[in-house]
Amino acid sequence: MTQGTLKIHTENILPIIKRWLYSDKDIFIRELVSNACDALRKLQILRDQNLADFNDEELKIELFVDKDARTLQFADTGLGMTAEEVEKYIAQIAFSGAEEFLNKYQGSGEKEQIIGHFGLGFYSAYMVAEKVTIDTLSYQAASEPAFWSCAGSSDYTLDKGSRSSRGTTITLHVGPDSDEFLETGRLQEILERYCKFLPYPIFLNGSRINEQDPLWLKNPSDCTEKDYLDFYRILHPMEPDPIFWIHLNVDVPFHLQGILYFPKITQRFDWSKTNIQLFVNRVFVSESCKDLIPDYLMCLRGAIDSPDIPLNVSRSSLQMDRTVRQLSSHISKKVADKLGTLYQSEKEKFYAAWPEIEMIVKLGILQDEKFYTRAKEFLVWKTTAGAWTALDEKTGTVFYTSDVHACLLELYKEKEVLLSTSPIDTHLFSFLERKMPLKFQRVDGALDESLLDASREKNILDAEGRTESSRIADFFRKALPDLEIDAKSLASTTLPAFLIVDENTRRMRDALALSGQNMPAFQAKTTFVVNTNNPLIGSIVQMQQAQPELAQEVAHHLYELSMLAQKEIEPAKVSAFITRSTQVLEKLLNR
């Protein structure tokens, strides 16, 4: 058996870093500023262990751009490096000085505050630079400054530097294809994107970039409503104020901080757009939290910061593992807990916010079993009477409608009817029927027995042995031969007739419509119900003795009115319906 050591050729690695490791060229600024932050943080750790002496006011990061000289400098007042350390940490690609430092000096809580881990961030500079130099002086007493220079090949020079104060200055000689990184405005934009919440002062040509500490670092009890709204405007300056928020502050079983906002839903709201900013140790990583946030929470706004989030080598995206799944589940739990608390303690505020959060809650219930368990207690509905009701204590049949002005509501005036306004409600009803002892029925989805008045049933037989109800049904079956007809004795005399659209086939049709499928051939099962206790029905049946053709036309017109009332008539047929209505009225007036 032969054993050996993998050999890495710098001339092959640097082109890979330059072209393929990072998705965006501007990330080199984030990486170099992050390294400077680590140098400052390491110095603080050494001071905590009485190994260094300085004042916090000395800690800062400065960027200087010289457009004429085509240079961009990154200068920090951190712990600096000796020539030996430059050889060790810079000349060895993918050797992480952060990991080694933590192993040597780590105290409680320091791991979360060191940003670098892979030892590759420095070399991102070669995405824009033809040459990079480092002038550095270590904090250690009697150290001499070191100067390192490399033009992007495997060769470098290391000599005595000129820096007279502790820290490091990295100078990028910007290539001809990267002019944008010599523009102050562009640099400021990049710094504000990636570095606005970093803990040390960052200056660009003398102007401070990061004035604001992230609000998620504060204790929620110390934050006011104004604090949360002001911070929201920093994160999302062009959006209306959110309706409420959730402050995340978790230490066990992982570290997680952040603030999630429930945005105001407008007609122009984009449900597919992700607007939760992902940070690791206050460094902006991505606006895409797709793997960290459940789909039904993707419309939320805000920021999440966690040192436990596993990133790829370029620190540009998540790597799925058990921690990410745990974080996702915990965020979902926190959202459900917040909504549950709001529902229990501030019901009026919860009801006012319901139109904005309704879709989130319903999608969560459909997609996440654990979320359903927590959310079922605050799954609320407004009734057609204007009251609010929850489902968790209901049993039996629950009536609903999607139209608060539906003519059929006259039949249900003594009952509670839920107002269904969401396009996913039919999916939700089917799901809840499997979970709860409930049956959801739209007011025109079936004829409930409670709507009938058996005492007024027309059961007296005539000379031919038929009841009046049978004669009414036979007449309408003859007038409307292609329909299923049912003559019933309703408790209300107001409504002459209406259309029943079978609940199950309607749900199937709604599901097809929601999926965007074409449904011209799909016909829901319908029944035309005639109210035998309505005076108009009696008049139409009597009309057939003298004017049978007109009676049939009126019967057909009544059917079309029922179709129109329940929005079942096709838009293309409305014009023909109006024409026929006019003709029927003329005939009735000329009798």
Features:
alpha+beta, eight-stranded mixed sheet, elongated, 591 residues, 15 helices, 21 strands, five-stranded mixed sheet
Characterize the structure shown.
There is one protein chain. The chain is an alpha+beta fold. It has 15 helices and 21 strands. The strands form 5 sheets. It has an 8-stranded mixed beta sheet with strand order 5-4-3-6-2-1-7-8, with helices on one face. Strands 9-10-13-11-12 form a 5-stranded mixed beta sheet, with helices on both faces. Strands 17-16-18 form a 3-stranded parallel beta sheet, with helices on one face. The longest helix has 24 residues, at 322-345. The termini are far apart. Mean pLDDT is 86; it is low at 108-112 and 312-320.
**What's the total helix number?**
15
State the strand order across the main sheet: 5-4-3-6-2-1-7-8
User: What proportion of the residues is helical, as a percent range?
Assistant: 25-40%
Number of strands: 21
**How confident is the prediction overall: mean pLDDT?**
86
End-to-end span in angstroms?
A: 110 Å
Provide the β-strand percentage band: 15-25%
Topology:
Elements: H1 10-21, H2 27-48, E1 61-66, E2 71-76, H3 83-90, H4 97-105, E3 129-137, E4 146-150, E5 156-160, E6 167-174, H5 184-194, E7 202-204, E8 207-208, H6 225-235, E9 244-250, E10 256-262, E11 275-280, E12 283-286, E13 301-305, H7 322-345, H8 347-367, H9 369-375, E14 380-382, E15 388-390, E16 396-401, E17 417-419, H10 425-435, E18 438-442, H11 468-479, E19 485-488, E20 497-501, H12 503-514, E21 526-531, H13 535-546, H14 548-565, H15 574-589
Parallel strand pairs: 1-7, 11-13, 16-17, 16-18, 19-21
Antiparallel strand pairs: 1-2, 2-6, 3-4, 3-6, 4-5, 7-8, 9-10, 10-13, 11-12, 14-15, 20-21
Helix pairs in contact: 7-8, 7-9, 8-9, 8-10, 11-14, 13-14, 14-15
